């Protein structure tokens, strides 16, 4: 019996070491032992909300996920909590909105991002049910391969002294050379971005989830929650090379936006459209990191000023 106990104790040592390393370096602050998460993954954002629910909340995809919340607070005069996360589909965003409104926590304001891309029926990622299970089961979180890879990456970056990646670029001549060696009119990352969108957008159709925006608007009105829908800006080449050829511009401007404005008038919410009707006068080549994401140094701060001034 003693031999078995000793063997089990020896086996427990590597498990304990792995668990300690995982908890120390997992970037989502799942266990609430750090000042803040270093990740913008959905589990990090929702875990933060569970620990300290804010009353003014941002929901959407990566275009909102990297907003400087201190800047947002300074511009608007109120504290915001960012629940936007990379790759969030319309369904995931609306599921999260329902989760917040079902939580029983006080909510004053919801800012929800939508775009032609997330309104597309062919962009339908659905991770929320799995997310809820992970939030309720720490063992499932610890055994998840993706989160273990994330923890290992943070460990290696810490050892190497690798700084956090920021989506910005001081583009040089080498950034304007195409695969064929020819000089490009835009920096390479921006120039090739539309090609990444075409496979999902060439058969664009409005998602069935679109109708849930009206349901959300009615629910917010009844609960006294101020709702704002935001359409983030896109680069011109996304519009000209993706939206126009596949008729997305027509569908958005003739069908989608009029419906959003009609709901806004009926339910008393705002639509801030920087994608079609009120695109900021940005220089795409210097202020966009790629076709969707503003440069975090040269573009995003300027848009944050615009957005949160209008929200105020």
UniProtKB/TrEMBL annotation:
UniProt cross-references to InterPro entries, sorted A to Z: SGNH_hydro_sf
Entry protein name: Uncharacterized protein
Family annotation (Gene3D superfamilies): SGNH hydrolase
């Amino acid at each position: 019996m003693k031999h078995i106990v000793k063997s089990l104790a020896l086996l427990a040592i590597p498990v304990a070491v792995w668990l300690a390393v995982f908890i120390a370096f997992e970037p989502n602050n799942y266990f609430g032992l750090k000042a803040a998460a270093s990740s913008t993954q959905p589990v990090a954002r929702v875990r933060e909300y569970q620990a300290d629910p804010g009353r003014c909340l941002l929901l959407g995809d990566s275009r909102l996920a990297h907003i400087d919340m201190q800047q947002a607070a300074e511009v608007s005069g109120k504290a915001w909590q960012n629940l936007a996360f990379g790759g969030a589909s319309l369904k995931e965003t609306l599921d999260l909105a329902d989760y917040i409104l079902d939580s029983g926590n006080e909510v004053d304001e919801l800012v929800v991002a939508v775009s032609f891309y997330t309104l597309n029926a062919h962009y339908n990622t659905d991770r929320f049910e799995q997310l809820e299970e992970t939030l309720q089961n720490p063992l499932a979180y610890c055994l998840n391969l993706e989160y273990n890879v994330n923890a290992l990456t943070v460990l290696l970056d810490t050892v190497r002294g690798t700084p956090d990646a920021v989506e910005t670029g001081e583009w040089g001549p080498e950034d304007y050379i195409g695969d064929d060696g020819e000089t490009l009119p835009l920096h390479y990352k921006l120039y090739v971005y539309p090609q990444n969108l075409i496979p999902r957008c060439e058969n664009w159709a409005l998602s069935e989830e679109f109708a849930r925006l009206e349901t959300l608007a009615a629910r917010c009105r009844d609960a006294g929650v101020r709702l704002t829908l935001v359409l983030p800006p896109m680069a011109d080449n996304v519009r000209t090379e993706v939206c126009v050829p596949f008729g997305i511009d027509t569908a958005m401007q003739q069908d989608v936006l009029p419906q959003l404005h009609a709901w806004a008038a009926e339910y008393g919410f705002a639509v801030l459209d920087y994608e079609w009707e009120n695109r900021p006068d940005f220089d795409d080549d210097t202020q966009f990191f790629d076709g969707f994401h503003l440069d975090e140094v040269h573009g995003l701060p300027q848009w944050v000023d615009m957005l949160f001034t209008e929200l105020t």
